[in-house]
Amino acid sequence: MPVDLKNYREERQRLIDRMAKGSVDEVLQWYDECAHLYNDNFDAFGFYYHKTIAEATLEYVKDKSAVILDIGAGTGKAGELLKKHGYTTIDAIDGSHAMLDIAMKKNIYRRLLCSTIGTKPIPNLEEGSYDVLIAAAVFANGAVSFESIPMLMKYLKKGGFLIFSSSEVVKDASLRLVNNALNEFSEEWQKSNICSMISTRETFHANNEPAVVYTFIKL
Length: 219
Known about the structure:
By secondary structure, this protein is of the alpha/beta class. The chain is about 40% helix and about 25% strand. It has helices spanning about 5-20, 25-45, 50-60, 75-85, 95-105, 150-155, 175-190; strands at about 65-70, 90-95, 110-115, 130-135, 155-165, 195-205, 210-219. Helix 3 (about 50-60) packs across helix 4 (about 75-85).
């Protein structure tokens, strides 16, 4: 499918409207319907979040044989970059079959699993089996909530990293409010000996849309 930014911008607004409603099912339906449109217009639109996730991974994960789980992997944009940087063992999980179908054809991932992310354990995923979890632009309205993080930490080895980004895609979901909420959760998680926030980095999601990359370590 050729680049069609006009159509993509219109469809992306439809996605943002669904995210604002907080409807996970409607958001997943959009990704199933628009997987190829999203993938084909990704670079031309100016998405940047996959690069910031890769940069943070390179900073904290020196072992290129580390076992990585790409949460909300989509069509594999973050996974592609990690593979180019020499990481050899990456699994993918996403709620959209259509997005994973595209990712599968890129031969990035060792394993692909179609599942949504909530607060309950993920079927067919072994606890303590990953060195790193990445989540590029996944924690958002209508997608994955911060309340999922304690559950996700169970799949990390002790001392493993969770690296993820959050942005202002949805109107009124300001990064200030996101940061405040995440800081409150982070204090609770540290007191409960679950994980600790070790860094934040201001960056961009796409074009001039602000974002923050967070890095947590499992305690």
